[in-house]
């Protein structure tokens, strides 16, 4: 995959299995977000392809906070509700929105414009939007950005609970905590290195 004239990712061959919790780390500019966007078909690779063995997966994506336009006139409750998929019955939608608002402790902010919230509150709103549909595949790009330390444990607990029934891909710099939750860990820095454990790094065989 190229960014401008520079190859961001080379010779990537990655299989993600149902039930995986894949922690993705690496240096800034190493290609973590590019990899995620290719997996989501938001970017096309310059060669090769992304293949979903199972079609129609319920997929949710929490992008980097910096990619969101917070000036858009929409309140928190509406942002969260926008994550609901068509398979949720209308009569259940309101209850589900309230449940997730409470889970992310956003009750006092539910009717505020998204732009009026602090960075951490905005991030919690986006996480609420990502998980409200109970996705089969959940992709999180730095979900703890701007979140205060007091709320970090809450988010870790939410993600751990989701991992019991959801395939998760999570870009994070907080690998120490995530390592105990994830069953796989890859380092993205132009290519992919998979780490079978925190203490034993093995370069995987890569091909186009």
Would you give an account of this structure?
A hairpin with a 2-residue loop joins strand 1 (2-3) and strand 2. The chain has helices spanning 32-39, 76-81, 90-103, 119-131, 149-162, 175-178, and strands at 2-3, 6-7, 21-25, 59-62, 137-141, 167-171, 184-189, 191-197, 200-202. The chain has a seven-stranded mixed sheet with strand order 4-5-6-3-7-8-9, sandwiched between helices. A two-stranded antiparallel sheet has the order 1-2. Mean pLDDT is 85; it is low at 198-208. The chain is an alpha/beta fold. The chain has six helices and nine strands. The protein is globular, with a radius of gyration of 17 Å.
Number of strands: 9
- N→C terminal distance: 11 Å
Query: H/E order of the elements?
Result: EEEHEHHHEHEHEEE
- Largest beta-sheet details: 7 strands, mixed
The whole-angstrom Rg is 17 Å
Approximately what portion of the residues adopt beta-strand conformation? 15-25%
Helix content: 25-40%
What structural class do helix, strand and pairing data support?
Answer: alpha/beta
Strand order of the largest sheet: 4-5-6-3-7-8-9
Number of helices: 6
Output mean pLDDT: 85
Low-confidence runs of at least 5 consecutive residues: 198-208
Q: What gross morphology would you assign? A: globular
